[in-house]
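Justification of computing resources. Each target in the renewal requires a structure prediction run like the one illustrated here; the chain below, 129 residues long, is used simply to show the kind of job we budget for.
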Amino acid sequence: QVQVVESGGGLVQAGGSLRLSCTASGLTFSGGAAAWFRQAPGKEREGIACINRTGSTYYKESMKGRFTISRDNAKNTLYLQMNSLKPEDTAMYYCAAPRPRYDYCAGPWWTAARPDNYWGQGTQVTVSS
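Resulting structure tokens:
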């Protein structure tokens, strides 16, 4: 049984930084692609950063230069370093991997946040102005 658990969210002032972490049991992040998504109130869940099996990274345009996705294979942990945070970054942040496992940041698991992805429960990020 796969379990995915995010942590590291919280309240931060605009301009500040947070690092989110995601651990998994029953799933190896380095065995395929994995990504961070977020969902703000009243909005659809959107993919913001993805890392493929070989370590190449992809970002939603508005996150480029501010957010960095990384993976520690030894710890089986996915990270999202978020800098220069803005109030509009306030959302629930989710870690996910495609089911079945898939190597690439492409297709509906990434572009459409498929419900049958392996999802964590989310961690709340709130950015105050």
